[in-house]
Records
---
Amino acid sequence: MSTPVLSVRNVTKRFGGLVAVDNLSFDVAEHQLIGLIGPNGSGKTTMMNLISGALKPTAGSISLLGTRLSDLPPYRITRLGVGRTFQLVRILPTLTVLDNVRAGSVFGHRRHWGRSGEDHAMSMLERVGLADMAGSPVGALTYIDQKRLELARVLAGEPKVLLLDEWLAGLNPTELATGIALIHALRADGRTIIMVEHVMDAIRSLCDRCVVMSSGKKIAEGTPDEVLADREVIRAYLGDDDA
Amino acid sequence: MTAHGYQEILIAAVAVFVAAFVPFVADGYELSIAVTAMMYIALCTSWALFSGPTHYISLASGAFFGVGGYLVATGMSDFNLSFWLMAAIAPVVALVLAGLIGLATLRLSGVYFVIFTLGLAEMVRNLVSWIQNNFLGSRGLYVLTDFTEAHIYWMLLGIAACVYLFGWLVNRSRLGFALRIIGNDETVARHVGINTASTKVLLFMTTGFFAALVGVVIAPRYSYIEPNQVFSPELSFLVVIMALLGGSGRLWGPIVGVIPFTLIWEFVSIQFPNQTTMFLGLVFLLIVYVLPHGFVGRLEQLNRRLRYRRGD
């Protein structure tokens, strides 16, 4: 494996007595799509928050191409090249669709302002298939469109690593197909992506590798087929009887 | 959009030009109302620069205004310094004070921020009174200058014009865009790469700077100043109410609130001097129930409906 873009080393996060992430380590290579999976409450979203800087690790380090991220505030981490979506979609309600995307391009990893910022934002909207809605208020968007908009905002910052936190959750079957196709396209672009996901179809078809978490610990790592056949993983998801 | 932006500043320039002639046509009484209105236009517009987009309601205007007025008074009265020197120092002191308050309140939002700024303004008032009474000897201070009411009016007009121009420039900059994003969702703001802390503190500091500058210019009008008078908490509330009445979503919004409010306030103060607080309460109810986005919000809503009917 080439030098990792993002490496997570012995990261622990405690909330009082609860250990949400327990001594976790993994690497993400360039152009790889890593799935972070595991049962509810296993600490996946906490891990995403630690990478994006929303939370600070209690111990351990996270670095992006050799730069330590773990003590930086979220805005610095974003500028260094980590972009994220949120588990519960977060859009900017009083701005237009285009301005929502500009928000990502104006302050992100690569910055665009004025005309070039607008053009760049527009091309991101085209990328996710929302170009027709550019001038609309965000109130007019359906759920999947809000998710696409959030993705466009993140892409507009041209991150080196993209964090998708349950981006496919809550979509109906048709929308899900659209969503998976979109992530497929991003993967084909050669983006480096970490994805927290519950949708198994998506995990099997999209992920190069998976890191499986249970109660904050890494219990397996490998290709989707390998980890999903792992006894430990099955036990974590379904309990002892089925393992 | 660009053409529209320049049109807006052109209208403002014409308005300033016209407003500059008020002292030539108004009699003494009218001019005194105009001075009050101009003072609130400057205060409310600068208040709205920070609180409009971010929705952080600050009740600290009185503290900054007071710092301006008080420093001029104590400098001239106790230390024999010139008005202009104090006029240069006071806003800088307020700027620093606002910076410190900003840093201290960064983690607060919503109602906690409101209460903190209110408490802080009271604390500054009591602290200054205490220092004045115990260490500087005199209870009251005199600000004696050659300024006429018209001079004060023109200075305030100048400040209001500067605030407006500053706000217009901010709105067109990355800074203004960052503020709008912060007002929408601070978590998102942080994650798109905005240094939310420094953005908020910076804008809060400019609000403090301008409020102190207004306090400086108003001081000669009072001639006799007591700390309790210039650090009036009522002023903080009036600024918020007038700005919200006009609407803080647009740069010119507060002006639309200040003018009718000052006129009615003047009438109420004369006719029913004991009921001014009740009037304040009624206006606040009006804002909450009828005009949540101020006059400006209502106008824009009507405008949208009209366009919708015409089928645009």
---
Amino acid sequence: MTATRRSFIKKTLTAGAGALASTLGWLTSLKALAAWQAENFKQGPLDDALKRLFNDQKITDSQAIAIRIPTIAENGAVVPITVSSTLPDVRAVSILVAKNPAPLAARFELSPELDTFVSARLKMAETSEVIAVAETGSGLYAARQVVKVTIGGCGG
Amino acid sequence: MSSIKIRSKREGGKTQIRALISHPMETGRSRDPKTNQLIPAHHIQELIVSHNGKVVANGQLGASISKDPYFAFVLKGGEPGDKIRIEWSDNLGNTDSEEHEIK
């Protein structure tokens, strides 16, 4: 009886410690995420945003990335975009709007189970270039498309 | 009632996954038209899509994503009965998730 009770207490303690450790791990990953978010979704010019995201790595323009987006957006609050690519080994796709206060709109890490295909809807403050950057095993590739916005999407 | 709606469609050996999330996605820069006060930032920061328990897409989102965001992904393969799970968390610590079965 005592043994069972002892082992029960032991088990509870270990489980508790494990839970605590995993909570701490989770908290640090949350903190790392928050730091990444704060850093990369900062307001500022496009060049700074690209520099923060990709550390000055060379970005090559590529025909193998397709951006499907209206060239004239009547409503900047909702601009549908689809980015797809035939490049091999794409690990992540980032979408940036050059003239938005915070240029990075989203970055998606895609596992090999997914096609390189992402649709989303963007807010655009004004007429601007939209850039899609694919992070592949062999470097960074980008495609650009200018979208004319007739009504801005921020503070409308 | 979940804030997430998921639809899937199998076609040509692939499965298109579409999600619509109801969320204000406030940038923190727009003003309330009545009070002229800034509306605090409130937007989704992280979006996770899993297929049968395995994370297949992990999105970091900023406030440049439209209100009530819509996303679509294409899964290679996908069988009837497979589970798609989508979860999000926002900058105010709210989270939500929804599970969907591919038909």
